[in-house]
Write a structure and sequence with these properties.
Blueprint lengths: L9 H5 L2 H10 L2 E4 L4 E4 L2 H7 L5 E2 L15 H24 L4 H12 L10 H11 L5 E3 H18 L3 H15 L8 H20 L7 H12 L6 H31 L2 H9 L4 H11 L5 E6 L3 E3 L2 E3 L4 E5 H4 L27 H25 L3 E3 L19 E4 L4
Helix pairs in contact: 4-9, 4-11, 4-15, 5-11, 6-7, 6-15, 7-11, 8-9, 8-11, 9-11, 11-13, 11-15
Length: 406
Amino acid sequence: MPAPYDLQSAQFFNNPYPTFARMRRDDPVYWNEELNVFMVSRFPDVHALARIPNTTPERVDAFFRNLTNPDPDKNSAVHRMLCNWLDVCDWLVSSRPPGYSWLRELVAQAFSPEMPSPEADIRNLTGQVLNNLTDAPEIEVVDEIGGAMASEILSVTLGLSPADFSRLQQWTYDILNVASWTGNPDQTIAKAYEAICELGAYVSALPGLDSTELHQALADAKQHGLSLSTQELISTCTVLLIGGHEATTKLIANSLLALLRHPDQMARLRAEPSLLRSAVQESMRYESVAMHTFRIATADLTLPSGTIPAGSVILGLIPAASHDDSVYTDPECLDITRQHPQHDDLGQAPHICAAWAMAHTEGLTILHEILQRFPALHLAAHDITYPRDMNLRSPHTLYITRSASL
């Protein structure tokens, strides 16, 4: 019997909303046999999932359930890296909110111990990136703005070369892709293992691994219950740092895409720039970057739409919940004045909000500069496609045209 929903096709990833509407209506608590997970799609269920006591975010084991040819050594290394990543996220959230300025300073100690780490001036760096764009009639947002911004920020704060940034970016993608819930899990784990080994060798050769600041950070981490070597701490923090910049890029692309597809809302925002924060919040609802919140039930779990047995992996589908018409009036419409009394991006909460804190803050600044610099923007005539990723959703590329000259 074929699965009732195609959750792996390009068509689904390019536009998941019709499928999610069917799930909300017909299968609000859906057992996905292929992935061995429950999926919940209604707002009350997703909202409750991150807040009820009998679940746990310690979920790394779930990524290893569907392996057909497990390699103990590779599995152990990838498992430890992902556990470290979650633990360091939790450490940042619980003891150093919002954490990202400190995180950049810590990593900079390893990369450039002889130099003070300046805080990135996002507004000025955005201006430099926009100034460096050619006079071509089209701009590709993901790489030419988002990627260039990440490279510029880390060049300033860490002294990274573009080549090193590119390698770190690829290693980060390969490691975090384990959480994408797509592709062959054995191959995904193997690729992540290669990335961990290469990242570890790169970090081990950094000049500042013996700094006083890093020793203090390790002592602080130990008090929080983390047991990490210096190399593991810097590797994990580097992945978190690069991942945070990826989140910023995706937020910018999704927000611009939502606004450009709704010219009336773009015009309203230009007329009332004070609505920018509200516009980004609404864009995050309308085109959510995060695809799910993820828990494991430690006991039988009763949600508003049904019961889930203990031991189950549960994905709360954030884009589905964000378009639930029992909560949002006209959810398929973008309304930058919409109030979001319950919407906190639906409990993406402790383990990734360190990254989202940076993404939201830097994204607001970068979007403001883009809108100020370009008084007229339009979508260019290119297909917009999305990667096969059940973790984060944003276009591969986003081309825009501008009528104002730099």
